[in-house]
Amino acid sequence: MIIDGRTLPLPLVLRCDVVVVGSGPGGATAARRAAEAGKSVVVLERGGLVTPGTSTQREEQMVPRLLRRSGTMTTRDRAVQIHQGQGVGGSSLHNLNLCKRIPDAILSRWIEDRQLEHLPLSRWHALYEEVERLLQVTPVPTSMRTRHNSLLEEGCRALSWAGGPLSHNRTGCVGSGYCILGCAYDAKNNALKVMIPPLVEHGGRVLTHCSARRVILDGDRAIGVVADVVDPASHDVLGEVVVHAKDVCLSASATATAALLLGSGVPDPSGETGQSLRIHPAVLAAGDFDEPVESWRGVPQSFECTEWLDLEGTRHGHRAWIVPASGHPMTFATMLPGHGEEHRRLLERYRFIAPLTAMIHDDTAGTVKPTRDGFSIDYWPHEEDRAELMLGLAACARLLFAAGARRVYLPTRPFPTQVNASDVEAIALMPLEKGVIDVAAVHPMSSVPMGDAGTASAVDSRGRHRHARNLWIADGSLFPTSIGVPPQMSVYAMGLHVGQHLANA
Amino acid sequence: MSLASTMTERAERLLDAVPRLPWTSGPSPVVELSALAREVSAAWLGVKRDDLLDPEPGGTKVRKLEVLLASRALLSATRWTSVGAIGSGHLVALAAAAQRLDKELDVEVFWQPLSPHIEENLAFTSTLAHKLRFHGDRYALALSRPSLFLSKTARGAAVVPAGATTPATILGVARGAVEVARQIERGELPVPDEVIVPLGTGGTAVGLALGLALLDAPTRVRAVAVVEPWFTSRWYLTRLADAASRELRTLSGDDFDPGSLSSRALARLVVDGGQRGPGYGRSCPESLQASSVAAAHGLELEPVYSAKAFAALLEVARASPERRLLFWATPRKSGPLPHDPRWREKLPARLAEALERGRGPKTTRRRFVLVGATAALALAAGVRTSGYPEAVDGARTFAPWEIAVLEAAALALVEGASSELPRQCALALDRFVGTLPDDGRLEIHALLLAVEQGTLVAGSLSRFTQLTLGGRREVLASLARRKGPPGLLYRGLRDLVMAGTYQLPSTWGAIGYGGPLVEEAPRASRYDALVGDVADLQGLAA
To answer: Model-level pTM?
Structure first.
């Protein structure tokens, strides 16, 4: 069952076979697998239960429920905004349902570099097949392609750039366009819909508003988790839940998982934990068209441009992936730079503006550190990654002009830079400076990279911690590098994989 | 020449209306340094020895604390908290006062370069403090504990303002000037041409200037800056003098014009910025030299505050001979204070390590750097938060002044805002910011404070909400053009206002947005059947 932590008599001490921290794609999937194998499972989730019935499609109401720190999380120097989800289902509640596998080229590199004994290519393929089946992954129907996505397609065609349709995990989609605020129609085949009901059916319990504070260690063994029950309205700690378990599984995302390991004093002689964070940083350009685009309506992303994404390293080696981006008014107005008349003029073009975002397969290693209130993140793309971002930004502008944009705006601070078609080449040469161009990220990963014998890794390719017995990791922390594609499928895959080993433990 | 005794009596009568704990009894002595006067060609040179003030450990801080601690809020609290550098004289005086009044004292300290004097102070403070928390630098402290600068209480303890500078404590120092008037009458010293005093948080310098203005004395106060320029700006000192004058009028019930008193005080105040040296809390060759000159004449001065002021005195004496100069010795009595011999063992590990190394943690001006400046400006906040509405209906997160700042910002930033929009935007943000965790909320309080009180940053002397619409737009545009903290300040405020404005359905029609497609009221869903309660945890009880 799903039980609101705020209603529990506190402090509360529980005992079970497996305690899982986090109910997103990794945690919910691992928990489901363990419960199906007959284990008693308790999942601790820092957010609440956000059902389709309580999704209001209002930004100011949904953002605080669905995003950590009400969507205001940034790196310590504020140069990069980082969005991370919360709630039963984690980031799969608000994500845009894109389904892509990590290319074999990257997986093969991992297998070789990190000696992934338990994750050969065949295992990855089998995991992806199962995830695709569970999430009912299908191509987004062409009939659901919005004008916004068609413009990207037209841009690609005009420039003869590589691009193509995307697949998603939705059934029963009505095309409302409110995916990012949680689906009010239960059309997302997300962790809440796909993993939680079977988990509950097999006796699993999910405790909401429980923010894990510490892994309990007994010598070299993890024996439980201490969580604070936090009232989301006041942020008061109402009390403590302690769950003693035979196995502890951390699936709290690449930021919180690493912070929990470090903050709990889990040994890691290699010092890798929290030191190799990747985030897929992204920049954005907006085209102003003569025709209405209404970017906020319909399936937000159904077409991608892969011209500058060479994950195999067989073409030009560039690492930028381009898709449409959109926002409802609060987000959009905040995203637009400037103020006063200038901001107003841009906002009046809201219906006609089509933003594109370039996200890069990053190489920069960021860091996560535990703090009293959770964690802090340090990350600023290194020179090569900055160049990739600017190349991506230039490519967005070219696509927009090629699709017929009258003007293109770059969200430079303090005022937006308006570029003409002839300026596009120069964009790639502009320096990316902190605070001058907005950088955002939604895919933290790789903070506890897995690896087997012969590597320094703290976690093996079953997700088992190598220096604390009975401690497991099942989320995107495990990826040895950035992946260059939306991570949800791969995080579900990690949940299945680690869940299977947990079930057999 | 003497001062008019009618003026002295009136000044005493006015200042007697300021409530205080009866700690200082007699005047602190004035000691003439005639040999030094001859050396530097001064007509007269002496020292007002506040370091010998009762009770122990003395210092001008006692004049401030006996007033500050007489406030009901602090007297009735069982626990106090305050901030300062590790060797802060303020914290030493406060620790002694807490012991005397049987209060628990939590202190939050930040690093400053070490000297024997600093370590003596830290030994004493850490021995008496109930809790001591360490922050790498002032910026880190302001950032992690803004409530110490913005609230009356923090972690359940009553906040004692940093440096103990408030309108009332300025009046406590003004008593010192009147005390000197009586000493002049008794022939203990001539009417000085100048009183020389270090300028830290401004309370002592402004207090003495106010006292001299009340006496109508022809004496100037040379305030020798030992802190960053924002504390020593004319704007800041004017605010202090205005507020203290108003406070005196309120407390005394006298009908003098506080504006005129404040102007007369400021006319006597000269800020001497020539002795800052390498920065706050750090000595320089001039201060070390001054310190040894003073020592040769029997006056022990710590090298970073008083010695800088003494260096200024020597310079003035040499530049303008035949003047009567009174040096105001503000620090506590010299020498070690009683302390637990094992005080170092009780320190937080980071501080103990830093002491061991003799070097503070690496200074990082990280995150919202402006909070550092904000913290400084916040000292003036008590002075400047009058004139706002008493309460705003529906506001739970923001104080009325913060609502006023947001409204003023919305009018300046949002083109074509309707008359209702600013209030609606502010209240929408009140709800939204209320969803942030404590540190996020405090940061926004600090941001609003910086905007309202920190307009100096943009070259203006008025608070933000008092500027005209055009003035506010100019301030914002100038912040927007700048990189670093001012740019961040602009961006933070702008993002807030845009988020507050465009979440309002009333703004959607104009931009062609239709709004949600579902009802706001909760609807049933299949997940409702999965919701359980504590009974469903049966079998898991440990």
So the answer is: 0.70
